[in-house]
Amino acid sequence: MDELTGFVTEFGYVALILPFLAAAIAPLLTSVLKSHSTWLLALAPLGAFLIFFAGVGEVAEGTVHRFGFEWIPSFDVAFSFRLDGLSLVFALLVTGIGTLIILYAGGYMKGHKDQGRFYAFMLMFMGSMLGLVVADDLVTLFVYWELTSITSFLLIGFDHTRERARRGAVQALVITGGGGLALLAGFLAIRELTGLTSLSEILAAGDTLRDSPYYLPILLLVLAGAFTKSAQMPFHVWLPNAMEAPTPVSAYLHSATMVKAGVYLLLRMHPALGDTTAWMTILPAFGAVTLVVGALLAVRASDIKITLAYTTVASLGLLVMLIGVSSKTAIIGAVLYLIAHSFFKGGLFMVAGSVDHSAHTREIHRLGGLARHMPLTFVAAMLCALSMGGVTPFIGFLAKEEIYHALEYADAYHLAILAAAIVGNALMFAAAFIVALQPFVGTKPAHIDHPHESGFRVWFGPLVLGVMSLVGALYYGVYHALFSSPMASAAYGEAVEIDIGWIPHLNLAFALSCATLVLGVIIYLASTRLRQGLASLLAAIGWGPDVGFDQAMRGLIKLASGVTRIIQNGRLDYYMTTVMIVMVVALWGSMWWSGGFPQVPTIPALEVYEWIILGLIVFGIAAVVLAKNRLQAIVALGVQGYAVAFIFMLQGAPDLAFTQFMVETLSVVILALVMTRLKLQPSDHRPLAQKLPDATIAVLAGIGFGLFLLAVVQAPFDRTLSDFFERYSYAIAHGRNIVNVILVDFRGIDTMGEIGVVMTTGLAVLALIRIRVGRHGRQSVDPLERAP
């Protein structure tokens, strides 16, 4: 493959930034233009779509577009992007369906008071997902990965006044965020253990990761990120609860964006991590369970949005299962199904929103007879359902045929996966027509008043996606050449040619497809009884992952409260003792572990004035220990500081000595002021048994610091920093006082932070000394009254 510079490379940055720019102006634009802002905002994803579409021909010929720049060179992190068959198709889905969703949202949420905020969140989410699928550098990919979690949290919890919306948002953030941390650990492990920092390097490294002794932990960490993002059992619970978001969010999130991020990552990493025993065991196992259970829960649900949500769970399980099989045909089936799913699921979700918007309900048993009132929506629903059901001539049929062709082997491994695929596809066939057929046929219930089409922007999107599901299959030669074949080639790691068409061939795969349709019709006809039976079964089981999430969160809160009660119990003496013990362990433990105890020094020949200063230090220590009250101890505490200041002055550092004098003076004054304003005992009346442990800890800390400083002094002096500051203090900062230059220029931000800390401390002390505690425990803020 070649690396070329062209239109896509030059304008790739524009495509990536357009959704974020539109998000920035969306609230203002909507407040000015109201619903008309939809058309202008939709130009952002449309422009990005056209930029990426311009590269379809080159990518189909094998070109890989790469562009970016150095981001953090010292850590070998680049803001880099890669556009090949896999990332290009995802980018087209994100931007193309995103354009339709923005238009749909304009009609669906017309007049909503927070429509501008909704557009901003949606476009930020779109930009995050777009960056994720084209990112090349691992750190860049992770940044966009987490941005999708954050923006989806904002979208799911958009109606933040409802508790269920807030819970759904938190649940999605906790589960996908936790998986994101695992993915970050996996990426860091890849960088540190192999030196590979980008997807391009990983894909070019062949079996480097598979041959690594750390392959399994890396695989598990990557799968944790992918499984949580793409809602594999038991992490699936966040996805149905994300239905608390407005329907445009559901349609976009479930069709082309966040839920497919994990599948994208698995397809992208397949050439480097796939085709191993662990890969071919873990992925099919999780995928098959997710497929069957998700499809059963879809038929069990009575809310059409929840039904579609669980079919998304099932579809993601099917994709993960196929990627786990790892054969060329299985990867082709996964690619074909992924594209088909983006079309029919996005369309069906928009249909569900249109039905809800018109009939004011999403309950299956309360809907019917809408076809004559909403003919365009009904046509769109049937087109999408036929593709979802795998009926020819729709692209869903191409995917289903290729899936069965990939699994037509007689061994137990493939037979088990094939059985899961047949059962799951049949259940999803039934679910598709439960959503697309039942609300539109039969007699209209009396409670539905004046159902009608909701306007061009609402029915246009699902109708386009339904038509695309048909056109893609009818012109399968062009479809495969430009989209599915390049995508499968990038995912498989070798050139792949797809030629399956909509005309059936009399073979085993077609027979299995027909059996699936028959089983799906049977399930559809028995859906009411099956729904009741599954509801009774789940009620009898009771506990599930969703309940388990609430239990885990409550347990986490209780654990945090318990730890807080132990560690933060409100006693200052406890805090000080804990800090000192940790300090003693750190000092003595580190020196013992490293064998870093210093040699016993000889007593140097001191001058008389040096002995005097040393005597002052000893005198100050004795004065503090033997002081009769706390105020005397505070005053005596300043003696050591003044003695150290004298040492600085005698050693030729008058500015440092002056600073020490100021610090000691202020410390003594502030502590004395605080002591006079607090109601404390004038002296420490504790028994010796309580004083002795504190004294022991203090002595150990003092000796530990002394030994540590001796060890530092005895180590060879490294002049690297000294030489640096001597060389550049005047040349760069134009200052001859090196200490001042370090404080003001080289570590100016640190100094500013220290000043902020001192200021905050001063304000806290000021507030503290203004408090007067009365005889009955009441507090006043009279600064003129003294404590008794």
Describe the protein:
With 788 residues, the protein is mainly α. Helix content is 73%, strand content 2%. Strand 3 and strand 4 form a beta hairpin.
Write the layout of secondary structure elements.
Blueprint: H1 7-33, H2 37-53, H3 56-60, E1 65-72, E2 77-83, H4 85-108, H5 115-134, H6 138-156, H7 163-194, H8 199-204, H9 208-211, H10 215-229, H11 238-241, H12 247-255, H13 261-273, H14 277-300, H15 304-325, H16 328-359, H17 375-388, H18 395-406, H19 412-436, H20 456-474, H21 476-492, H22 508-525, H23 527-541, H24 545-567, H25 572-594, H26 608-626, H27 630-650, H28 654-677, H29 688-714, H30 720-733, H31 738-746, H32 748-769, E3 772-773, E4 779-780
Antiparallel strand pairs: 1-2, 3-4
**What's the average pLDDT?**
87
The helical percent reads over 70%
Overall geometric form:
elongated
User: Would you report the number of β strands?
Assistant: 4
User: How are strands sequenced across the largest beta sheet?
Assistant: 1-2
What composes the largest sheet? 2 strands, antiparallel
- List segments where confidence is low: pLDDT < 50 over at least 5 consecutive residues: 773-788
Provide the β-strand percentage band. under 5%
Secondary structure tally, helices: 32
Query: What value does the Rg take, in angstroms?
Result: 34 Å
Please report the distance between the alpha carbons of the first and last residues: 86 Å
Structural class: mainly alpha
Keywords: Antiport, Cell membrane, Ion transport, Membrane, Transmembrane, Transmembrane helix, Transport
Domain MrpA C-terminal/MbhD: 616-679
Pfam family, one: MbhE
Transmembrane segments: 12-32, 39-57, 85-106, 118-135, 141-158, 170-190, 279-299, 306-325, 331-355, 376-395, 415-437, 458-482, 502-526, 574-593, 608-626, 633-650, 656-676, 697-717, 751-769
